[in-house]
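Memo to structure team: turn this sequence into C-alpha coordinates by end of day. - J.P.
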Amino acid sequence: MVRAVAMYIGIDIGATNTRIALADQEGRIVKKIRFPSPHEGDEYTVARLLVEKIRENFRDWLEKVRAVGIGTIGPVDLRKGMVVNSPNLGIRTFYLVGPLKEDLGKPVYMLNDCVAAVWGEKMFGAARDTDNAVYITFSTGIGGGVIVDGALLLGKDGNAHEIGHIVVDYKYRIRCGCGGYGHWEGYASGANIPRFAQYIAEHEELSGEEKRSPLYRLALEGRLTSEIIYREAKRCDPFAERVVNEVIKINVAGVASVINVYDPEVVSIGGSVALNNPELVIEPIIREVPKNIVNRAPRILRTPLGEDAVIYGAIALAMNPPSTLLRFLQKDA
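Reply from structure team:
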Protein backbone atom coordinates (compact mmCIF):
# COMPACT_ATOMS: atom_id res chain seq x y z
CA MET A 1 0.00 0.00 0.00
CA VAL A 2 1.43 3.37 -1.07
CA ARG A 3 1.39 5.92 1.70
CA ALA A 4 -0.09 9.31 0.80
CA VAL A 5 2.42 12.11 0.52
CA ALA A 6 2.11 14.56 3.42
CA MET A 7 2.34 18.28 2.76
CA TYR A 8 2.62 21.21 5.15
CA ILE A 9 1.94 24.94 4.93
CA GLY A 10 4.17 27.51 6.57
CA ILE A 11 3.19 31.16 6.96
CA ASP A 12 5.50 34.08 7.74
CA ILE A 13 3.63 37.26 8.72
CA GLY A 14 5.96 40.25 8.71
CA ALA A 15 5.44 43.95 9.20
CA THR A 16 6.02 44.62 5.50
CA ASN A 17 5.31 41.36 3.70
CA THR A 18 3.59 38.04 4.32
CA ARG A 19 4.80 34.82 2.73
CA ILE A 20 3.17 31.41 2.45
CA ALA A 21 5.04 28.24 1.48
CA LEU A 22 4.03 24.68 0.75
CA ALA A 23 6.55 21.99 1.77
CA ASP A 24 6.75 18.23 1.41
CA GLN A 25 7.31 15.76 4.25
CA GLU A 26 11.08 16.33 4.03
CA GLY A 27 10.66 20.06 4.54
CA ARG A 28 11.48 20.92 0.94
CA ILE A 29 9.60 24.00 -0.27
CA VAL A 30 7.47 23.18 -3.31
CA LYS A 31 5.83 26.55 -3.85
CA LYS A 32 6.07 29.95 -2.21
CA ILE A 33 4.12 33.20 -2.58
CA ARG A 34 4.63 36.69 -1.18
CA PHE A 35 2.31 39.68 -0.81
CA PRO A 36 2.09 42.91 1.25
CA SER A 37 0.89 42.51 4.81
CA PRO A 38 -2.42 44.34 5.32
CA HIS A 39 -2.26 47.49 7.43
CA GLU A 40 -5.95 48.37 7.45
CA GLY A 41 -8.96 46.35 8.52
CA ASP A 42 -10.43 44.59 11.53
CA GLU A 43 -9.23 41.76 13.78
CA TYR A 44 -10.16 39.14 11.18
CA THR A 45 -8.73 40.85 8.07
CA VAL A 46 -5.35 39.10 8.21
CA ALA A 47 -6.89 35.64 8.66
CA ARG A 48 -9.37 36.21 5.82
CA LEU A 49 -6.55 37.25 3.50
CA LEU A 50 -4.47 34.20 4.43
CA VAL A 51 -7.35 31.82 3.72
CA GLU A 52 -8.01 33.57 0.41
CA LYS A 53 -4.36 33.29 -0.67
CA ILE A 54 -4.08 29.65 0.43
CA ARG A 55 -7.21 28.61 -1.45
CA GLU A 56 -6.20 30.64 -4.50
CA ASN A 57 -2.63 29.36 -4.74
CA PHE A 58 -2.58 25.92 -3.06
CA ARG A 59 -6.02 24.45 -3.75
CA ASP A 60 -4.60 21.46 -5.64
CA TRP A 61 -2.58 20.37 -2.59
CA LEU A 62 -4.99 21.13 0.25
CA GLU A 63 -6.23 17.57 0.63
CA LYS A 64 -2.65 16.43 1.30
CA VAL A 65 -1.88 19.19 3.82
CA ARG A 66 -1.53 17.74 7.31
CA ALA A 67 -1.04 20.95 9.29
CA VAL A 68 -0.35 24.68 9.09
CA GLY A 69 2.36 26.55 10.97
CA ILE A 70 2.45 30.31 11.48
CA GLY A 71 5.38 32.51 12.46
CA THR A 72 4.09 36.02 13.10
CA ILE A 73 5.21 39.37 14.37
CA GLY A 74 4.29 39.78 18.00
CA PRO A 75 3.50 40.16 20.76
CA VAL A 76 1.29 37.07 20.70
CA ASP A 77 -1.32 35.48 22.93
CA LEU A 78 -0.88 31.77 22.27
CA ARG A 79 -3.97 30.81 24.29
CA LYS A 80 -6.20 32.92 22.08
CA GLY A 81 -4.18 32.28 18.91
CA MET A 82 -3.79 35.96 18.13
CA VAL A 83 -1.41 38.89 17.83
CA VAL A 84 -1.91 41.56 20.48
CA ASN A 85 -0.90 45.22 20.20
CA SER A 86 1.83 44.79 17.59
CA PRO A 87 3.95 47.96 17.30
CA ASN A 88 4.94 47.28 13.68
CA LEU A 89 1.67 46.56 11.85
CA GLY A 90 -1.23 48.89 11.12
CA ILE A 91 -3.72 46.28 12.34
CA ARG A 92 -2.30 45.95 15.83
CA THR A 93 -4.51 43.13 17.18
CA PHE A 94 -5.86 40.23 15.12
CA TYR A 95 -6.91 36.57 15.32
CA LEU A 96 -5.09 33.83 13.40
CA VAL A 97 -5.39 30.25 14.69
CA GLY A 98 -9.16 30.02 15.20
CA PRO A 99 -10.28 31.38 11.81
CA LEU A 100 -7.70 29.37 9.84
CA LYS A 101 -8.45 26.16 11.71
CA GLU A 102 -12.19 26.60 11.19
CA ASP A 103 -11.94 27.45 7.49
CA LEU A 104 -9.20 25.01 6.42
CA GLY A 105 -10.13 22.12 8.72
CA LYS A 106 -6.45 21.49 9.57
CA PRO A 107 -4.41 21.69 12.77
CA VAL A 108 -2.94 25.19 13.02
CA TYR A 109 0.00 26.11 15.24
CA MET A 110 1.31 29.63 15.87
CA LEU A 111 4.46 31.12 17.35
CA ASN A 112 6.17 34.49 17.37
CA ASP A 113 8.16 34.72 14.12
CA CYS A 114 11.61 34.52 15.71
CA VAL A 115 10.53 31.72 18.04
CA ALA A 116 9.39 29.81 14.97
CA ALA A 117 12.69 30.65 13.25
CA VAL A 118 14.83 29.12 16.00
CA TRP A 119 12.67 25.97 15.76
CA GLY A 120 13.41 25.99 12.03
CA GLU A 121 17.13 26.28 12.80
CA LYS A 122 16.77 23.25 15.08
CA MET A 123 15.16 21.12 12.36
CA PHE A 124 16.79 22.44 9.19
CA GLY A 125 19.54 24.94 9.96
CA ALA A 126 22.38 26.00 12.24
CA ALA A 127 21.06 24.32 15.42
CA ARG A 128 20.46 20.80 14.13
CA ASP A 129 23.14 19.28 16.35
CA THR A 130 22.66 21.49 19.42
CA ASP A 131 20.30 21.75 22.39
CA ASN A 132 21.00 25.42 23.15
CA ALA A 133 20.43 27.97 20.41
CA VAL A 134 19.36 31.55 19.78
CA TYR A 135 18.02 33.10 16.58
CA ILE A 136 18.09 36.90 16.27
CA THR A 137 16.51 38.95 13.50
CA PHE A 138 17.45 42.49 12.51
CA SER A 139 14.63 43.61 10.27
CA THR A 140 11.78 46.13 10.60
CA GLY A 141 12.03 45.20 14.29
CA ILE A 142 14.45 43.17 16.38
CA GLY A 143 13.39 39.82 17.79
CA GLY A 144 14.68 36.52 19.05
CA GLY A 145 13.90 32.87 19.64
CA VAL A 146 15.59 30.62 22.20
CA ILE A 147 16.05 26.90 22.80
CA VAL A 148 17.54 25.87 26.15
CA ASP A 149 18.38 22.22 26.92
CA GLY A 150 16.35 21.16 23.88
CA ALA A 151 13.20 23.00 25.02
CA LEU A 152 11.72 25.89 23.08
CA LEU A 153 11.11 28.71 25.56
CA LEU A 154 7.65 30.28 25.47
CA GLY A 155 6.78 32.18 28.66
CA LYS A 156 3.34 32.74 30.16
CA ASP A 157 1.78 34.09 26.92
CA GLY A 158 4.34 33.10 24.29
CA ASN A 159 6.55 36.19 24.50
CA ALA A 160 9.51 34.85 26.47
CA HIS A 161 12.08 36.33 24.13
CA GLU A 162 10.98 39.80 23.06
CA ILE A 163 14.66 40.68 23.09
CA GLY A 164 14.13 43.77 20.94
CA HIS A 165 12.70 45.37 24.06
CA ILE A 166 15.80 44.90 26.18
CA VAL A 167 16.64 48.32 27.61
CA VAL A 168 19.96 49.43 26.13
CA ASP A 169 19.74 53.13 27.02
CA TYR A 170 19.11 53.88 30.69
CA LYS A 171 18.67 57.59 29.87
CA TYR A 172 15.51 56.62 27.94
CA ARG A 173 16.14 59.11 25.16
CA ILE A 174 14.09 57.49 22.38
CA ARG A 175 10.61 56.00 22.59
CA CYS A 176 10.06 52.56 21.04
CA GLY A 177 7.04 51.74 18.88
CA CYS A 178 5.66 49.68 21.78
CA GLY A 179 5.53 52.80 23.95
CA GLY A 180 8.54 51.99 26.14
CA TYR A 181 11.78 53.97 26.26
CA GLY A 182 15.39 53.00 25.65
CA HIS A 183 14.60 49.71 23.93
CA TRP A 184 17.12 48.04 21.61
CA GLU A 185 14.55 47.94 18.78
CA GLY A 186 13.86 51.65 19.21
CA TYR A 187 17.45 52.44 18.20
CA ALA A 188 18.77 49.68 15.95
CA SER A 189 15.87 48.18 13.97
CA GLY A 190 15.26 48.96 10.32
CA ALA A 191 12.21 51.03 11.19
CA ASN A 192 13.95 53.08 13.86
CA ILE A 193 17.55 53.63 12.75
CA PRO A 194 16.44 56.79 10.85
CA ARG A 195 14.90 58.16 14.08
CA PHE A 196 18.14 57.42 15.91
CA ALA A 197 20.05 59.19 13.12
CA GLN A 198 17.82 62.23 13.57
CA TYR A 199 18.47 62.18 17.31
CA ILE A 200 22.22 62.04 16.68
CA ALA A 201 22.00 64.96 14.23
CA GLU A 202 19.99 67.07 16.69
CA HIS A 203 21.65 66.24 20.02
CA GLU A 204 25.11 64.70 19.66
CA GLU A 205 28.38 66.57 19.23
CA LEU A 206 29.46 66.10 15.62
CA SER A 207 32.61 66.93 13.70
CA GLY A 208 32.62 69.46 10.90
CA GLU A 209 33.08 66.63 8.41
CA GLU A 210 30.01 64.84 9.76
CA LYS A 211 27.92 68.02 9.57
CA ARG A 212 29.02 68.65 5.98
CA SER A 213 27.60 65.30 4.92
CA PRO A 214 24.40 65.55 2.83
CA LEU A 215 22.98 62.88 5.10
CA TYR A 216 23.27 65.19 8.11
CA ARG A 217 20.76 67.58 6.55
CA LEU A 218 18.49 64.70 5.50
CA ALA A 219 18.58 63.38 9.06
CA LEU A 220 17.54 66.75 10.48
CA GLU A 221 14.65 66.82 8.00
CA GLY A 222 13.61 63.25 8.87
CA ARG A 223 14.15 62.08 5.31
CA LEU A 224 16.61 59.23 5.81
CA THR A 225 15.95 55.50 5.51
CA SER A 226 17.97 52.62 6.88
CA GLU A 227 18.77 51.58 3.33
CA ILE A 228 20.31 55.00 2.58
CA ILE A 229 22.29 55.02 5.84
CA TYR A 230 23.85 51.59 5.27
CA ARG A 231 24.49 52.26 1.58
CA GLU A 232 26.30 55.51 2.30
CA ALA A 233 28.22 54.02 5.23
CA LYS A 234 29.66 51.50 2.79
CA ARG A 235 30.73 54.50 0.69
CA CYS A 236 32.45 56.04 3.73
CA ASP A 237 30.06 58.96 4.26
CA PRO A 238 31.15 60.37 7.66
CA PHE A 239 27.67 60.94 9.10
CA ALA A 240 26.41 57.54 7.95
CA GLU A 241 29.50 55.93 9.47
CA ARG A 242 28.83 57.73 12.76
CA VAL A 243 25.25 56.43 12.89
CA VAL A 244 26.22 52.88 11.93
CA ASN A 245 29.04 52.81 14.49
CA GLU A 246 26.59 53.83 17.22
CA VAL A 247 24.15 51.15 16.08
CA ILE A 248 26.95 48.57 16.15
CA LYS A 249 27.67 49.41 19.81
CA ILE A 250 24.01 48.93 20.68
CA ASN A 251 23.77 45.67 18.74
CA VAL A 252 26.86 44.31 20.48
CA ALA A 253 25.38 45.20 23.88
CA GLY A 254 22.07 43.55 22.97
CA VAL A 255 23.54 40.33 21.60
CA ALA A 256 26.00 40.06 24.50
CA SER A 257 23.10 40.41 26.95
CA VAL A 258 21.18 37.63 25.20
CA ILE A 259 24.21 35.32 25.29
CA ASN A 260 24.87 36.08 28.95
CA VAL A 261 21.27 35.21 29.83
CA TYR A 262 20.70 32.08 27.73
CA ASP A 263 24.22 30.56 27.32
CA PRO A 264 23.64 29.23 23.76
CA GLU A 265 25.95 26.99 21.76
CA VAL A 266 25.04 28.79 18.54
CA VAL A 267 23.58 32.19 17.64
CA SER A 268 22.20 32.53 14.13
CA ILE A 269 21.44 35.97 12.77
CA GLY A 270 18.92 36.84 10.09
CA GLY A 271 16.51 39.54 8.98
CA SER A 272 16.76 41.89 6.02
CA VAL A 273 18.93 44.53 7.71
CA ALA A 274 21.53 41.93 8.75
CA LEU A 275 21.40 39.84 5.57
CA ASN A 276 21.73 42.89 3.30
CA ASN A 277 24.54 44.45 5.34
CA PRO A 278 26.52 41.59 6.89
CA GLU A 279 29.79 43.53 7.04
CA LEU A 280 28.11 46.28 9.10
CA VAL A 281 25.81 44.12 11.25
CA ILE A 282 26.89 40.48 11.54
CA GLU A 283 30.67 40.81 11.26
CA PRO A 284 31.00 43.47 14.01
CA ILE A 285 28.84 41.31 16.30
CA ILE A 286 31.06 38.27 15.67
CA ARG A 287 34.16 40.40 16.31
CA GLU A 288 33.06 42.40 19.36
CA VAL A 289 30.56 40.28 21.31
CA PRO A 290 33.14 37.81 22.74
CA LYS A 291 34.77 40.75 24.56
CA ASN A 292 31.49 41.48 26.37
CA ILE A 293 30.23 38.11 27.62
CA VAL A 294 30.88 36.18 30.81
CA ASN A 295 30.28 32.66 29.53
CA ARG A 296 32.03 30.59 26.88
CA ALA A 297 31.54 32.18 23.48
CA PRO A 298 29.05 30.45 21.16
CA ARG A 299 29.30 30.16 17.41
CA ILE A 300 27.79 33.28 15.87
CA LEU A 301 26.88 33.08 12.22
CA ARG A 302 24.61 34.27 9.47
CA THR A 303 21.59 31.98 9.31
CA PRO A 304 22.01 29.29 6.65
CA LEU A 305 18.25 29.56 6.04
CA GLY A 306 18.63 33.10 4.69
CA GLU A 307 15.46 35.12 4.23
CA ASP A 308 13.41 31.93 4.61
CA ALA A 309 14.27 31.37 8.29
CA VAL A 310 10.76 32.14 9.53
CA ILE A 311 9.13 30.18 6.69
CA TYR A 312 11.22 27.12 7.55
CA GLY A 313 10.36 27.70 11.20
CA ALA A 314 6.66 27.71 10.38
CA ILE A 315 7.07 24.52 8.34
CA ALA A 316 8.99 22.90 11.21
CA LEU A 317 6.20 23.98 13.55
CA ALA A 318 3.58 22.32 11.35
CA MET A 319 5.63 19.15 10.91
CA ASN A 320 6.83 18.76 14.48
CA PRO A 321 5.16 21.13 16.98
CA PRO A 322 7.43 21.51 20.04
CA SER A 323 6.44 19.72 23.21
CA THR A 324 6.51 22.95 25.19
CA LEU A 325 3.86 24.43 22.88
CA LEU A 326 1.67 21.32 23.03
CA ARG A 327 1.80 21.30 26.84
CA PHE A 328 1.09 25.03 26.89
CA LEU A 329 -2.03 24.61 24.75
CA GLN A 330 -3.24 21.53 26.66
CA LYS A 331 -3.38 23.52 29.90
CA ASP A 332 -6.39 25.40 28.60
CA ALA A 333 -7.92 22.62 26.50
